[in-house]
Automatic annotation (TrEMBL):
Family named by the database record: Belongs to the BetVI family.
Keyword annotations from UniProtKB, A to Z: Nucleus
Organism field: Oryza brachyantha
GO CC entries: cytoplasm; nucleus
UniProt-annotated stretches for the region Disordered: 285-308
CDD domains linked to this entry: Bet_v1-like
SUPFAM superfamilies referenced in this protein's UniProt entry, alphabetically: Bet v1-like
Biased composition (Basic and acidic residues): 285-300
GO MF assignments: abscisic acid binding; protein phosphatase inhibitor activity; signaling receptor activity
Main localization of the protein described in the UniProt heading: nucleus
PANTHER family recorded: OS04G0593500 PROTEIN, OS08G0374000 PROTEIN-RELATED
UniProt-recorded name of the protein: Bet v I/Major latex protein domain-containing protein
Residue ranges annotated for the Bet v I/Major latex protein domain, each copy included: 3-143
UniProt record, GO biological process: abscisic acid-activated signaling pathway; defense response
Length: 308
Protein backbone atom coordinates (compact mmCIF):
# COMPACT_ATOMS: atom_id res chain seq x y z
CA UNK A 1 0.00 0.00 0.00
CA UNK A 2 1.26 3.44 -0.94
CA UNK A 3 0.46 6.57 0.98
CA UNK A 4 1.58 10.02 1.98
CA UNK A 5 1.16 12.57 4.74
CA UNK A 6 1.84 16.26 4.62
CA UNK A 7 2.12 19.12 7.11
CA UNK A 8 2.32 22.85 6.45
CA UNK A 9 3.48 25.61 8.77
CA UNK A 10 3.28 29.28 7.87
CA UNK A 11 6.21 31.33 9.18
CA UNK A 12 7.31 34.95 9.38
CA UNK A 13 10.76 34.03 8.05
CA UNK A 14 11.91 34.65 4.45
CA UNK A 15 12.15 31.51 2.33
CA UNK A 16 15.83 32.12 1.53
CA UNK A 17 16.73 32.20 5.22
CA UNK A 18 14.88 28.95 5.95
CA UNK A 19 16.56 27.31 2.97
CA UNK A 20 19.96 28.10 4.48
CA UNK A 21 19.00 25.57 7.15
CA UNK A 22 16.79 23.08 5.30
CA UNK A 23 18.85 23.06 2.11
CA UNK A 24 22.16 22.29 3.83
CA UNK A 25 23.55 20.07 6.56
CA UNK A 26 22.69 22.73 9.13
CA UNK A 27 19.31 21.09 9.72
CA UNK A 28 21.02 17.83 10.65
CA UNK A 29 23.17 19.69 13.16
CA UNK A 30 20.24 21.54 14.74
CA UNK A 31 17.57 18.85 15.00
CA UNK A 32 19.11 16.78 17.83
CA UNK A 33 19.51 20.00 19.82
CA UNK A 34 16.01 21.27 19.13
CA UNK A 35 14.16 17.92 19.24
CA UNK A 36 16.16 15.59 21.52
CA UNK A 37 12.99 13.60 22.32
CA UNK A 38 12.72 12.66 18.63
CA UNK A 39 16.33 12.55 17.37
CA UNK A 40 19.31 11.64 19.53
CA UNK A 41 21.95 12.10 16.85
CA UNK A 42 22.45 12.78 13.12
CA UNK A 43 25.82 11.76 11.67
CA UNK A 44 27.28 12.52 8.26
CA UNK A 45 28.28 9.27 6.55
CA UNK A 46 29.32 10.70 3.20
CA UNK A 47 28.86 13.76 1.02
CA UNK A 48 28.78 17.52 1.47
CA UNK A 49 25.03 18.19 1.68
CA UNK A 50 24.32 17.85 -2.03
CA UNK A 51 22.65 15.03 -3.95
CA UNK A 52 24.11 11.68 -2.88
CA UNK A 53 24.86 12.76 0.70
CA UNK A 54 24.15 10.03 3.25
CA UNK A 55 23.33 10.67 6.91
CA UNK A 56 22.54 8.30 9.75
CA UNK A 57 19.70 9.17 12.12
CA UNK A 58 19.77 7.72 15.64
CA UNK A 59 16.66 7.85 17.81
CA UNK A 60 16.39 8.14 21.60
CA UNK A 61 15.35 5.08 23.66
CA UNK A 62 11.65 4.38 23.89
CA UNK A 63 10.63 4.33 20.21
CA UNK A 64 9.64 0.68 19.54
CA UNK A 65 11.63 -0.94 16.73
CA UNK A 66 13.48 2.26 15.89
CA UNK A 67 17.14 2.70 16.77
CA UNK A 68 18.62 4.17 13.60
CA UNK A 69 18.48 4.29 9.81
CA UNK A 70 20.40 5.84 6.94
CA UNK A 71 18.96 8.19 4.36
CA UNK A 72 20.32 9.54 1.08
CA UNK A 73 19.65 13.01 -0.34
CA UNK A 74 18.13 12.34 -3.77
CA UNK A 75 17.12 15.92 -4.64
CA UNK A 76 18.42 19.31 -3.57
CA UNK A 77 16.78 22.05 -5.63
CA UNK A 78 18.32 25.35 -4.61
CA UNK A 79 16.20 27.34 -7.04
CA UNK A 80 12.77 26.06 -5.94
CA UNK A 81 13.81 25.22 -2.36
CA UNK A 82 12.94 21.51 -2.47
CA UNK A 83 14.88 18.73 -0.76
CA UNK A 84 14.13 14.98 -0.85
CA UNK A 85 15.73 12.17 1.13
CA UNK A 86 14.98 8.45 1.01
CA UNK A 87 15.70 5.70 3.53
CA UNK A 88 18.31 3.28 2.21
CA UNK A 89 19.15 1.13 5.22
CA UNK A 90 18.13 0.46 8.80
CA UNK A 91 15.18 0.03 11.12
CA UNK A 92 12.59 2.06 9.18
CA UNK A 93 12.81 -0.50 6.35
CA UNK A 94 12.96 -3.45 8.74
CA UNK A 95 9.64 -2.35 10.23
CA UNK A 96 7.95 -3.21 6.95
CA UNK A 97 8.28 -0.10 4.81
CA UNK A 98 9.27 -0.94 1.25
CA UNK A 99 10.14 2.71 0.66
CA UNK A 100 10.18 5.83 2.84
CA UNK A 101 10.89 9.26 1.41
CA UNK A 102 10.76 12.72 3.00
CA UNK A 103 10.28 15.93 1.01
CA UNK A 104 10.83 19.43 2.41
CA UNK A 105 9.54 22.43 0.46
CA UNK A 106 10.05 26.06 1.44
CA UNK A 107 7.36 28.06 -0.34
CA UNK A 108 7.67 31.82 -0.70
CA UNK A 109 4.53 33.70 0.32
CA UNK A 110 5.88 37.25 0.64
CA UNK A 111 9.22 39.02 1.12
CA UNK A 112 9.28 38.04 4.80
CA UNK A 113 6.89 35.10 4.98
CA UNK A 114 6.99 31.49 3.81
CA UNK A 115 5.47 28.06 4.32
CA UNK A 116 7.38 24.94 5.36
CA UNK A 117 5.70 21.93 3.75
CA UNK A 118 6.90 18.55 5.03
CA UNK A 119 5.72 15.44 3.20
CA UNK A 120 6.32 11.74 3.84
CA UNK A 121 5.69 9.31 0.97
CA UNK A 122 5.89 5.59 1.67
CA UNK A 123 4.98 2.11 0.57
CA UNK A 124 4.07 -0.58 3.11
CA UNK A 125 4.46 -4.29 2.49
CA UNK A 126 1.40 -6.53 2.66
CA UNK A 127 0.72 -8.30 5.91
CA UNK A 128 1.60 -5.34 8.15
CA UNK A 129 -1.84 -4.10 9.28
CA UNK A 130 -0.34 -2.36 12.33
CA UNK A 131 1.67 -0.06 10.04
CA UNK A 132 -1.30 0.54 7.78
CA UNK A 133 -3.44 1.49 10.76
CA UNK A 134 -0.74 3.77 12.12
CA UNK A 135 -0.40 5.59 8.83
CA UNK A 136 -4.14 6.18 8.48
CA UNK A 137 -3.85 9.05 10.97
CA UNK A 138 -2.51 12.46 10.10
CA UNK A 139 -2.73 16.17 10.75
CA UNK A 140 -2.05 19.51 9.07
CA UNK A 141 -1.54 22.83 10.82
CA UNK A 142 -1.49 26.53 10.01
CA UNK A 143 -0.41 29.46 12.18
CA UNK A 144 -1.11 33.13 11.61
CA UNK A 145 0.44 35.80 13.81
CA UNK A 146 -1.83 38.79 14.37
CA UNK A 147 -1.63 42.19 15.99
CA UNK A 148 -4.84 41.51 17.91
CA UNK A 149 -5.22 40.55 21.57
CA UNK A 150 -6.10 36.90 22.16
CA UNK A 151 -9.21 37.82 24.16
CA UNK A 152 -10.64 39.83 21.26
CA UNK A 153 -10.06 37.01 18.76
CA UNK A 154 -11.66 34.53 21.16
CA UNK A 155 -14.85 36.60 21.15
CA UNK A 156 -15.14 35.61 17.48
CA UNK A 157 -13.67 32.08 17.50
CA UNK A 158 -15.00 30.93 20.87
CA UNK A 159 -18.70 30.95 20.04
CA UNK A 160 -21.08 31.16 17.09
CA UNK A 161 -19.88 34.48 15.69
CA UNK A 162 -17.20 32.95 13.48
CA UNK A 163 -19.91 30.84 11.81
CA UNK A 164 -21.96 33.99 11.15
CA UNK A 165 -18.97 35.75 9.61
CA UNK A 166 -17.32 33.17 7.36
CA UNK A 167 -19.97 32.99 4.58
CA UNK A 168 -19.53 36.75 4.17
CA UNK A 169 -15.77 36.92 4.59
CA UNK A 170 -14.75 33.81 2.62
CA UNK A 171 -17.69 32.96 0.31
CA UNK A 172 -15.29 31.14 -1.98
CA UNK A 173 -14.96 28.50 0.78
CA UNK A 174 -18.24 28.62 2.75
CA UNK A 175 -21.69 29.20 1.27
CA UNK A 176 -23.72 28.93 4.46
CA UNK A 177 -23.49 27.93 8.13
CA UNK A 178 -26.68 26.88 9.95
CA UNK A 179 -27.27 26.20 13.63
CA UNK A 180 -28.80 22.74 14.09
CA UNK A 181 -28.79 22.69 17.90
CA UNK A 182 -27.05 24.24 20.88
CA UNK A 183 -25.98 27.71 22.01
CA UNK A 184 -22.29 27.72 21.07
CA UNK A 185 -21.13 25.53 23.95
CA UNK A 186 -20.02 21.90 23.97
CA UNK A 187 -22.54 19.77 22.10
CA UNK A 188 -23.52 22.50 19.64
CA UNK A 189 -24.09 21.17 16.11
CA UNK A 190 -23.67 23.23 12.94
CA UNK A 191 -24.44 22.40 9.33
CA UNK A 192 -21.73 23.79 7.06
CA UNK A 193 -22.38 24.16 3.34
CA UNK A 194 -19.29 24.60 1.18
CA UNK A 195 -18.84 26.55 -1.99
CA UNK A 196 -18.72 24.48 -5.21
CA UNK A 197 -15.35 22.88 -5.92
CA UNK A 198 -14.13 22.56 -2.32
CA UNK A 199 -12.44 19.12 -1.74
CA UNK A 200 -14.53 16.90 0.52
CA UNK A 201 -17.25 19.53 0.23
CA UNK A 202 -20.98 19.53 -0.32
CA UNK A 203 -22.11 19.88 3.27
CA UNK A 204 -21.32 18.47 6.67
CA UNK A 205 -22.50 18.57 10.26
CA UNK A 206 -19.93 19.26 12.96
CA UNK A 207 -20.25 19.08 16.72
CA UNK A 208 -18.39 21.25 19.23
CA UNK A 209 -16.51 18.78 21.44
CA UNK A 210 -14.36 21.20 23.47
CA UNK A 211 -14.70 24.87 24.43
CA UNK A 212 -11.90 26.02 26.73
CA UNK A 213 -12.58 29.67 27.55
CA UNK A 214 -9.54 29.87 29.80
CA UNK A 215 -6.93 28.63 27.32
CA UNK A 216 -8.81 29.73 24.18
CA UNK A 217 -9.14 26.30 22.58
CA UNK A 218 -12.10 25.07 20.53
CA UNK A 219 -12.44 21.61 19.02
CA UNK A 220 -15.04 20.34 16.59
CA UNK A 221 -15.62 16.97 14.94
CA UNK A 222 -17.50 16.11 11.77
CA UNK A 223 -20.41 13.81 12.61
CA UNK A 224 -22.11 13.62 9.21
CA UNK A 225 -21.22 14.32 5.56
CA UNK A 226 -18.11 16.09 4.31
CA UNK A 227 -14.97 13.99 4.42
CA UNK A 228 -16.88 11.16 6.14
CA UNK A 229 -18.60 10.58 2.80
CA UNK A 230 -15.20 10.19 1.14
CA UNK A 231 -13.70 7.34 3.18
CA UNK A 232 -12.52 9.23 6.25
CA UNK A 233 -13.27 7.71 9.65
CA UNK A 234 -12.54 10.91 11.54
CA UNK A 235 -12.14 14.58 10.68
CA UNK A 236 -11.66 17.07 13.50
CA UNK A 237 -10.61 20.71 13.76
CA UNK A 238 -8.80 22.40 16.64
CA UNK A 239 -8.67 26.19 16.85
CA UNK A 240 -6.27 27.77 19.34
CA UNK A 241 -5.75 31.45 20.07
CA UNK A 242 -2.28 31.72 21.57
CA UNK A 243 -1.46 34.97 23.34
CA UNK A 244 1.98 36.35 22.52
CA UNK A 245 1.85 39.76 24.23
CA UNK A 246 -0.96 41.94 25.49
CA UNK A 247 -1.61 43.16 21.95
CA UNK A 248 -0.63 40.24 19.72
CA UNK A 249 -1.54 36.59 19.31
CA UNK A 250 -1.37 33.58 17.01
CA UNK A 251 -4.33 31.79 15.42
CA UNK A 252 -3.36 28.12 15.22
CA UNK A 253 -5.67 25.96 13.08
CA UNK A 254 -5.18 22.17 13.05
CA UNK A 255 -6.98 19.41 11.18
CA UNK A 256 -6.68 15.84 12.49
CA UNK A 257 -7.99 12.94 10.44
CA UNK A 258 -8.14 9.17 10.01
CA UNK A 259 -8.71 7.53 6.63
CA UNK A 260 -8.67 3.93 5.40
CA UNK A 261 -7.01 4.71 2.08
CA UNK A 262 -3.88 6.64 3.03
CA UNK A 263 -3.56 8.00 -0.50
CA UNK A 264 -6.62 10.17 0.22
CA UNK A 265 -4.75 12.03 2.93
CA UNK A 266 -3.37 14.42 0.33
CA UNK A 267 -6.91 15.75 -0.26
CA UNK A 268 -6.92 17.31 3.21
CA UNK A 269 -6.08 20.99 2.95
CA UNK A 270 -5.60 23.60 5.64
CA UNK A 271 -6.21 26.33 3.07
CA UNK A 272 -9.83 27.00 4.07
CA UNK A 273 -8.98 27.55 7.74
CA UNK A 274 -5.99 29.67 6.76
CA UNK A 275 -8.30 31.85 4.66
CA UNK A 276 -10.68 32.18 7.60
CA UNK A 277 -7.88 33.25 9.95
CA UNK A 278 -6.67 35.89 7.52
CA UNK A 279 -10.18 37.18 6.74
CA UNK A 280 -11.25 37.36 10.39
CA UNK A 281 -8.05 39.21 11.29
CA UNK A 282 -8.59 41.70 8.48
CA UNK A 283 -12.26 42.17 9.41
CA UNK A 284 -11.46 42.83 13.08
CA UNK A 285 -8.80 45.38 12.18
CA UNK A 286 -11.29 47.14 9.90
CA UNK A 287 -13.85 47.15 12.69
CA UNK A 288 -11.30 48.82 14.95
CA UNK A 289 -10.79 51.75 12.58
CA UNK A 290 -14.49 51.92 11.75
CA UNK A 291 -14.13 51.15 8.04
CA UNK A 292 -15.15 47.53 7.54
CA UNK A 293 -15.03 46.53 3.92
CA UNK A 294 -16.73 43.17 4.26
CA UNK A 295 -18.73 43.38 7.48
CA UNK A 296 -21.79 41.15 7.38
CA UNK A 297 -25.18 42.80 7.58
CA UNK A 298 -26.75 42.60 10.99
CA UNK A 299 -30.47 42.20 10.35
CA UNK A 300 -32.02 39.27 8.57
CA UNK A 301 -32.29 35.70 9.78
CA UNK A 302 -30.87 34.47 6.49
CA UNK A 303 -27.58 36.22 7.20
CA UNK A 304 -27.08 34.91 10.73
CA UNK A 305 -26.76 31.39 12.07
CA UNK A 306 -30.30 30.31 12.85
CA UNK A 307 -31.77 27.07 14.20
CA UNK A 308 -32.82 24.61 11.52
Amino acid sequence: MKGSQSHELQTDVPAAELWEIYGTLRAAELLPELLPHILAKVELVSGDGGVGTVVQLTFPPGIPGMQSYKERFIRVDNENYIKEAEAIEGDILKLGFLSYMIRFEIIRKGPNTSVIRSTVEYEISDGRPELQAMEMKGSVCHELETELPAAELWEVYGGLLVGQLVPHLVPEVFSKVELVEGDGGVGTVLRVIFAPGIPGGGSMKEKFTKIDNENYIKETEVIEGGFLDHGFQRYAVRLEIVGKTGKSSVIRSTIEFEVEDASKASSVSIGGLAAVAEAVTKYMKEQRVGEPEHAPKQASDEENIQPK
